[in-house]
Amino acid sequence: MIQNRYVITMYILLASLLLPGGASAQDSAKLKVVASFSILGDFAKNVGGDRIELATLVGPDGDAHVYSPTPADGRRIAEAKLVLVNGLKLEGWMGRLVKSAGSKAPLVETAKGIPPLAEPAGRDRAAPGVDPHAWQDVANARTYVTNIRDALIAADPDGRAAYAANAAAYLSQLGVLDAEIRAAVARIPADRRRIITSHDAFAYFEKAYGLDFVAPQGVSTETEASAKDVARIIVQIQREKIPAVFFENISDPRLMERIAKETGARIGERVYSDALSGPGGPAATYIDMMRHNIKAFSTALSS
Ligand code: ZN
To answer: Cα separation of 120 and 135, whole Å?
Structure first.
């Protein structure tokens, strides 16, 4: 008799778990978080773990400079309890999206506290802006992660211990990554540490690790490279014997193909500047992205 009642209770429990709605009831306990683009999404996933339900707006290989939000993005923002953005003027489209969604969720600029680099001088731009690509220095990635940890704790105080533990584990992986990049750069002959990429996405990397980057397009992909920018780069490659040019996953390859053809510079492997690759690609996480890029640079510059 007792056994029967136990069996019936188990059936009821199982049925309630399997009923439609059971899963969403469980998910609704999770903190709904929106990240503006894939790299921030990966940081948030590492810190939030299974306590958060994460939606990333600009996905793999997407360009966060010039994104056009969809109606589904508006719904995600409206439901979110926390919205994570880069800041440093990367997501010019986010303000309107948050406003039109009527969101009251905190909008956290995760690059906060990182000293911003100015847009490189010497361009024909109306006003020099700030460079948003701070994640390209792993020391800055640590700041992003601690900001995300603190934002998650503020939005979900019960998760404090979990968020702190996840962040600590991930920060130690970032420490290893930073040392790997430094060791790889040290192995590249000093006179070959020069690279051309399509847009100015690697200034933080340059400052942190000592490779020189030159790009025909500015820090945003919103403005096309002018004929003058391209001509200047071609002269510079020839004069300084820059060994390699790299395509970025978010950029149109035609410009770089033309530059490579006119200068004879070698075309390196595709690198990832502003977005991760899809799950099956070589840069599906931030750590894999940074490892992939330094390997691509090293391979093209070493021989
Ligand atoms: Zn960019």
So the answer is: 17
**pTM of the predicted model, to two decimals?**
0.86
What pLDDT, in 10s, does the model give residues 222-274? 778 888 888 888 998 898 888 888 888 888 788 888 888 999 888 888 999 99
* Ligand 1 center–CA 208 separation, angstroms: 17
Using a CB cutoff of 5 Å, list residues around ligand 1, an ion: 201, 274
Q: Are 80 and 268 in contact (CB under 8 A)?
A: no
CA of 221 to the centre of ligand 1 (A): 6
Question: CB-hemisphere CA count at 13 Å for 221?
Answer: 21
Q: How far is the CA of 171 from the centre of ligand 1 (A)?
A: 24
Annotated domain spans of the chain: 23-118+128-177, 181-302
- Fold classification of 23-118+128-177 is Rossmann fold (3.40.50)
